[in-house]
Amino acid sequence: GQQVMQIPQYQHVQEGEDFTTYCNSSTTLSNIQWYKQRPGGHPVFLIQLVKSGEVKKQKRLTFQFGEAKKNSSLHITATQTTDVGTYFCAGNTGTASKLTFGTGTRLQVTL
Amino acid sequence: NAGVTQTPKFQVLKTGQSMTLQCAQDMNHEYMSWYRQDPGMGLRLIHYSVGAGITDQGEVPNGYNVSRSTTEDFPLRLLSAAPSQTSVYFCASGRRGSGGTGELFFGEGSRLTVL
């Protein structure tokens, strides 16, 4: 079945440093989504990428979808303590309604 | 709008007991799903539904049953709870698009402990 892996599993940065998490799928994706889950909370949608090579920005967050539509990345510039949480990617394959989540990257930011 | 509502928020069961986790959404979403979240495992899909009367299995369906009699409700049933089902359960709903499932809206989660 489809597998979606994320690296790193955990990253600890100091406030102001940059952070990147990578997402890799075993199969070609029709689209990829990113979610953020604060400690003790539920996942919250951040963005969806659909086109090959697509890049989208949300303030300090930059999302990329790979040319082969099998990988994606999320980059945070100048992290803040409010960025703390676990970031998940999630992919759809074709018209299937199964949204498969990655294993997540937990980000810790300290002053 | 309430969004996605899950009940109960916390539950402790003994091995072999049965229970139902309730999920309701008021956004008229076609798609509803149940995930379980375990440390280091991410979110794993249990069952999902693309509309009333239609359900299908996800990655980890064993030990769970679902039904979708209305657009709004998607209950998850544990017929005979096992310690391996100790987890946090999330219900999510969303609209379907041409490329699959769109943005998912999650409930606040239900923490289940099976002794």
What's this model, at a glance?
The complex is a heterodimer of chains A (111) and B (115). By secondary structure, chain A is mainly beta.
Could you characterize the architecture of this molecule?
- The complex is a heterodimer of chains A (111) and B (115).
- Chain A has 111 residues and is an all-beta fold.
- Chain A has no helices and eleven strands.
- Chain A is globular and about 40 Å long.
- The mean pLDDT of chain A is 94.
- Chain B is globular and about 40 Å long.
- Helices cover 0% and strands 57% of the residues of chain B.
- The N and C termini of chain B lie far apart (36 Å).
- In chain B, the strands form two sheets. In chain B, strands 2, 4, 5, 6, 9, 10 and 11 form a seven-stranded mixed beta sheet that branches.
- The mean pLDDT of chain B is 94.
- Chain A binds chain B through residues 1, 6, 9, 30-31, 33, 35, 41-45, 48, 50, 88, 90, 92-104, and chain B through 31, 33, 35, 40-45, 48, 50, 56, 58-59, 90, 92, 96, 98-109.
Features:
heterodimer; A: 5-stranded antiparallel beta sheet; globular; B: mainly beta; 7-stranded mixed beta sheet; 4-stranded antiparallel beta sheet; 0% helix; 57% strand
Give the DSSP E fraction of chain A (strand runs of 2 or more residues): over 45%
Rg of chain B to the nearest angstrom?
13 Å
> Please, how many helices of chain B?
0
Shape of chain B: globular
N-to-C SSE string of chain B, H for helix and E for strand: EEEEEEEEEEE
CA-based gyration radius of chain A: 13 Å
Report the total helices of chain A. Answer: 0
User: For the residues shown, what is the average pLDDT of chain A?
Assistant: 94
Overall mean confidence score, pLDDT of chain B: 94
In percent, how helical is the residue content of chain A? Answer: under 10%
Would you count the extended β strands of chain A for me?
11
Biggest protein-protein contact in the assembly: A-B, 29 and 29 residues
| Helix share bin of chain B | under 10%
Q: Which oligomeric form is depicted?
A: heterodimer
Strand content of chain B: over 45%
Amino-to-carboxy terminus distance of chain A: 41 Å
